[in-house]
């Protein structure tokens, strides 16, 4: 028997991978990797195509319910998932997929940065930032900027490991 909820979620993850992989007027921007299984926090790791080592994480929520009266995508994200995603030391995003089952390639994706503390879970996602070509370019630039201002690579070179050679 098909678990429809899991199947819809799987389709949404595949669609996001395709959306991140699409060619823009600035070329291919991301190399996404589906993490697979039911990892509790993230669904996709994506590295900037032309700048290896600069990466981000995505949690994907897929819905067939469309938007509510306020125009927000109807998805549910528990507080604990938002908090876990916010704790990663890399850019982390929530992407809502408005799935069109009759033609999945007409589905739309909306993105929100997840960081900081969250008092509540989410019952809807703003549709202000559709994951279109313009916002893919802005996303790539944001991920690069994050890593340019991060000192994590400096920290990695100075920490001591029992496995140093």
Write up this protein:
This protein has 165 residues and is of the alpha+beta class. The protein is 30% helix and 22% strand. It has a single domain (4-158), classed as Trna Endonuclease, Chain: A, domain 1 (3-Layer(aba) Sandwich), CATH 3.40.1350. The chain has helices at 4-21, 79-87, 133-148, 152-158, and strands at residues 23-24, 27-28, 30-34, 44-48, 55-63, 92-98, 108-113. Strands 3-4-5-6-7 form a five-stranded mixed beta sheet, sandwiched between helices. It has a two-stranded antiparallel sheet with strand order 1-2. β5 (55-63), α2 (79-87) and β6 (92-98) form a beta-alpha-beta unit. The longest helix is centred in the first third of the chain and has 18 residues, at 4-21. The radius of gyration is 17 Å and the shape is globular. The termini are far apart. The relative contact order is 0.17. The mean pLDDT is 91.
């Amino acid at each position: 028997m098909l678990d429809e909820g899991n199947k819809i979620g799987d389709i949404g993850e595949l669609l996001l991978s395709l959306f991140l992989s699409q060619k823009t007027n600035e070329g291919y921007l991301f190399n996404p990797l589906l993490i697979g299984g039911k990892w509790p926090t993230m669904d996709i790791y994506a590295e900037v195509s032309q700048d290896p080592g600069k990466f981000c994480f995505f949690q994907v929520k897929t819905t067939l319910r469309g938007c509510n009266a306020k125009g927000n995508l109807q998805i549910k994200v528990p507080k604990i998932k938002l908090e876990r995603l916010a704790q990663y030391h890399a850019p982390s995003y929530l992407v809502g997929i408005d799935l069109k089952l009759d033609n999945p390639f007409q589905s739309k994706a909306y993105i929100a940065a997840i960081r900081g503390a969250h008092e509540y879970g989410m019952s809807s996602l703003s549709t202000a930032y559709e994951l279109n070509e313009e916002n893919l370019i802005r996303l790539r630039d944001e991920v690069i900027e994050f890593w340019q201002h991060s000192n994590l690579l400096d920290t990695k070179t100075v920490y001591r490991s029992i496995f140093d050679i």
